[in-house]
Amino acid sequence: MYGFIVNKTAGSGKGHTTWKQIERALETKKEPYLMSFTETSRDAVRRTNELLESGVKAVVVVGGDGTVSEAAEALVHTSIPLGIIPAGFGNDIARSVGIPGNVSQALDRVFAGNPKKIDVLQLGDRYCLTVAGIGFDGEVAKTVNEASFKKWLNVLKLGRLVYAASVFRVLTSFKPVDVTLTIDGSKQQFSDVWLTAVANAPNYGGNIRICPAAVNDDGRLDICVLHSTHKWPLLRQLPNIFTGKHSANEHISFLKGKKILVEADVPLLVQSDGEVVGETPVEVQTAAEALLVL
């Protein structure tokens, strides 16, 4: 029996319409299932644990990255796989594991039942799947989640504009700081850092390929540090950063490691999978082969 967790409001209501399509397919196949709707933040963690107690053979999330990430937290280090039917705006987690955006194709992949082990990011007692963004990224995530205009843009199905508007808002106020990275015990210092991205997957933020070489099954994390006294050199790099065509230069550094401690002159917000999860100092490490994904 499959267990489904559905975020009806994901993607400005796409979660609801997607579930209706899935429901019809399940009835046609006469496939037994349990289903729970999420109602509040962090609800998917609780719903997943309830489904696990019910003895489901897989937990399938219908929603966006936030809901998927919460469900995955409850499935880490278990034998129950995660299925994903993407229904959000970014759908970066689904994209990073090769799940198609087409509902029927994504559902067929679930029914095929071929789970794969992937690594996850571990930040203290939290687990995340794509990228931990520290500094500028954290401020953008906070601004997105607190934006008074977010609800109305979602109603108008213009939710993607929330992220772009928040980026430009944060650009006007964010100040770069000095950052120390301790990577597998070795310290490196960077001045005037805007963003430190620690990645288990190449893409986040709606397919921004911040660490294009990152993969989620090599037991290592990819790190991208954006550093510059002024914002303009980085702004000129944005088209390449968005498409993953950026390379190491005087303002962009790439590194790799298994355990990364990020410290800064002042506390910096940390986001992962689109949610603010804390502030620096923060230790990020890889939990190798910790999650099964269909």
Automatic annotation (TrEMBL):
SUPFAM superfamilies: NAD kinase/diacylglycerol kinase-like. Residues 1-127 form the DAGKc domain. One of its GO terms (biological process) is phospholipid biosynthetic process. Keywords: ATP-binding, Kinase, Lipid biosynthesis, Lipid metabolism, Nucleotide-binding, Phospholipid biosynthesis, Phospholipid metabolism, Transferase. Belongs to the diacylglycerol/lipid kinase family. NCBIfam families: YegS/Rv2252/BmrU family lipid kinase (TIGR00147). This is Lipid kinase. It comes from Alkalicoccus saliphilus.
